[in-house]
């Protein structure tokens, strides 16, 4: 579904992503784990067209998206929930969801909205509320619901558990699994390696801009190096 | 009665400032830049209307329409040629470019229209309003200017809250990257905001010159700066703030002119800005910026 081959991304003089290649197949949950600054978020931003790679190729559903505009990439079904949620704080919950459906034909929006409210009943209760007044967990739900409004074929989640209480983290991961069951392929970037790997079909470990290790979720979960570096022994 | 007349005249002048300030504030909100050439678009708008009516003999309404279309196109072209290439440049570079565009427009007008002031004939040919047995006279221009401002405000509010484009505009001004991730084309949204702002500037220019009929290449610069002051006073980035700031500033200016001193009126206006910046830097309706620690 998504194949990334040898991408290289610079921030000015800093070479942030070095020859990264990986794949996401239809129906998988793929986890991208690694420490702060390993290049996980940069990788996602490159996939969604906010940053550009200087080399290699990015193919999504057999289309070259490396030179495609960010808008077109969303339209094609590759949707990115950015780190820190980045909801529109001054707009209402429903307006945020409306923005998520920006690329969608008008007649599909109502149905999508219902589907999002089924996944996130809390958002329905608060749909007239200004998004900035939501709690952290609700904001994460809104960010994910907003992305679902774009009918993603592949949903990229950047640190969905960041800053949330353990009980909420559990809830968010349950929702991710529910979305996956409902047919959405997922690329998950997480520092919470334990949680991410335990639901992932496959995983990639990133370190200082390169992919250093790959395997199934379970393999990585039991890999000694991974345990030492990311799972606290 | 005299005070009331002054307040109404002030509200009328303030409405002009408000319409100009809307352009400033919307462009600032979305592109995070101060478009100091915005004032000169007013002047271009007034010249277009003047030429259409006085040289081509077109009816006033056609002149207004031509002027709005002309300025809308001008706004889009200026953004595309001068500001878009600087999208990721430091804000000082963009600011200096805007000042450059301002000089360019003024001097282009100087070459094309000459330096002698043109006498703008008001496009509003209606009798003045007489109230209280003729003790209070309000010019039709003042009434129409205030009305135009109210209509524009209502229309813009509906546009930004009810339409898809308008909401996309708010989304872009809040978080440009996140807006892109929604599939919103940020460049075309910025372009649209420049188009709207410049079209409004044309209307402001025509209304202003209908009340103060001297038209010169520098006609736009002072109202431009005052409208910027109004935008800051109301809270830059806020649409209702621009309207409130504009009207307040107009009233302050006219009252200062009537009761303090004609010469000092402008000084009073800018003193208000300084005081505002000292006590409430975010403006009347602006949100205070919390510094992250």
TrEMBL record, chain B:
Which domain of life, per UniProt? Bacteria
Note whether Membrane occurs among the keywords.
yes
Instruction: Note the topology in the membrane.
Output: Multi-pass membrane protein
The protein's GO terms of the molecular function aspect are: L-isoleucine transmembrane transporter activity; L-leucine transmembrane transporter activity; L-phenylalanine transmembrane transporter activity; L-valine transmembrane transporter activity
PANTHER family with a match to the protein in the record: BRANCHED-CHAIN AMINO ACID TRANSPORT SYSTEM PERMEASE PROTEIN LIVH, HIGH-AFFINITY BRANCHED-CHAIN AMINO ACID TRANSPORT SYSTEM PERMEASE PROTEIN LIVH
Q: Where in the cell is it found?
A: Cell membrane
- Record-given protein name: Branched-chain amino acid ABC transporter permease
Q: Gene Ontology terms, cellular component aspect?
A: plasma membrane
Q: What are the transmembrane regions?
A: 6-29, 64-82, 94-115, 135-160, 192-215, 227-252, 264-283
Q: Which UniProt keywords apply?
A: Amino-acid transport, Cell inner membrane, Cell membrane, Membrane, Transmembrane, Transmembrane helix, Transport
Please classify the protein's predominant subcellular localization into one broad category.
membrane
One GO biological process term is:
L-isoleucine import across plasma membrane
Q: Which family does it belong to?
A: Belongs to the binding-protein-dependent transport system permease family. LivHM subfamily.
